[in-house]
Each structure stands twice: as C-alpha cells, then as structure tokens.
Automatic annotation (TrEMBL):
GO terms for cellular component: plasma membrane. Residues 41-287 form the G-protein coupled receptors family 1 profile domain. Keywords: Cell membrane, G-protein coupled receptor, Membrane, Olfaction, Receptor, Sensory transduction, Transducer, Transmembrane, Transmembrane helix. This is Olfactory receptor.
Amino acid sequence: MERENNTLVTEFILLGLTQSQQAQLLVFVLVLVFYLIILPGNFLIILTIRSDPGLTAPLYFFLGNLAFLDASYSFIVAPRMLVDFLSEKKIISYRGCITQLFFLHFLGAGEMFLLVVMAFDRYIAICHPLHYSTVMNPRVCYALLLALWLGGFTHSIVQVALILHLPFCGPNKLDNFFCDVPQVIKLACTDTFVVELLMVSNSGLLTLLCFLGLLTSYAVILCRVQGHSSEGKNKALSTCTTHIIIVFLMFGPAIFIYTRPFRAFPADKVVSLFHTVIFPLMNPVIYTLRNQEVKASMKKLLNRHMAY
C-alpha cells in the first residue's frame, strides 16, 4: 500500500542487538535490573527537589528537569527493546519508527541544551556570585527551560522532515534494536549523500560544538576558582567535576554516532545501548551522589515516609 510520501514500506524489521540467544538473555536481565533500580531513583530525585523548600536554587531546578528528561528519554527505547528480546520477529511500523526517532532526538537535544544551560548557571554562580540572584531569577530560568524545549523540538522536526521526504521501497531490515537516523537513511531508495550531509551538520556538528563549548566553559570556571577560599574552591571543583562527567557520558556516544558518515561500525550497537538506555538513567544519579544537599534531603524524605 503506497503512502502519501510515495513510501511502499509500511513496517521495519529490527535485527536487534545480537543474534545470540545467550547474549540476548544476558542483556535482557541486565537492562531489566538496571531499569527497575535506576529509573525509580530518577523519580525520587524529582520528588525530593519538589518537596524540599530548601532546594529551590536554579541548580536544583535544572537537576530536577535533567532527571525528568532522562527518565522520559529512557522510555523511548528500553521498554520496547525488552519486549523485542522475548519476540522472534521484531517489527515496528513506519509511523512507529518515525515517532520513536522524533522523540529520541527531541528529548536528546533537549538534554544537550539543558547541559549548556546548567554550565551557564554554574558560570554565573561561581564567576559572578554577586549578580547570580539577579541574572538567574525564576523568570530567566523558565525562559531558558522553554528555549531548550523549543530547541529540541526544532532539531528533531528537521530530522523527521528530511526522512519523510525519502522514498522507502525495498529492503526494510534495520540493523539495530531501535529506529535511528543512520540506519533508517540507509534503507532509502535514492542517493542520500545530501541528506546525510545535512543530518551530520544538524546532529553531529551541533553536538560537537556544544561539547567543545561546555569543556571550554568549565575550563574557564576551574581557572577562575583558583583564587577562591579552600571551601568554596572544593565545592566548585566537586560541582564542575560532576558536570564534566555527565557531559562526557552524554556527548561521547553522540559524537561517535552522529559526527561521521553513516557507515556501520562493530561498536555501533554497544555505544547505542549505553547512549539510549544506560547513561540517561545514570546522569542524575551521578550528580545526586556527589551533591550533599540533595542526598541529605532525600534521606529525610525517605525517613519521613518510612516512619508512617
């Protein structure tokens, strides 16, 4: 049945992470355990920040949004992947594939822009503390939040628009466990060089520039704190180190996947697994484990509820 965009393919077959039954079972158990343990942790972070009046600073406002974005991002791929591990035939409809791809890049880009916003917040807090409350007032925080959501939407809709104009009339086997740009484009029945170039510019170049910009901003912050008191210096170093770890976890796999020509590499699926399932759930947890205020508030919240 022919689609409005001249697409004959109505569904895609996902080849999955691996063809080995033993390896699939191992990954299934690991992902399921990880998912059931870490995902509630993200919601606990959100609940803790929202319920504690002492965690109203912009830093915690953005951390709560990071936990929300990461938790939402983890719902795009992981649940279906777990179901597919137990299915002989892994099929996703054309519309389902495009929808998955849209939300993957929408939330992924939103998180990328959020990390940029968090770096800006730390720069103002550490380098211009006297102006912090004026610059990072609630109105500015909400405006920045709206901007990053709009930025993620714009980025993603461009990706989808480029793919929707491609004809799919032949092979429909995606060599992955989810729908993503590199694999989907390769199935188009036309020359995709220009589209690939646009995709690399839209995803890869943007990701790389944000990554380099973040590293530069944190390098500036670390240089500026050298003259601070020992206590302030240690706190700034701890915060910046945490942010830098999250930046590498978020941007490292994205740079590997999107800043090169869309050619298959042996490590692609493993990198994609960490990028779409493991790291998103870990980011807020890593931050929380290194933040004494959030940990103390979380313990109070748990103790209060356990008392009942």
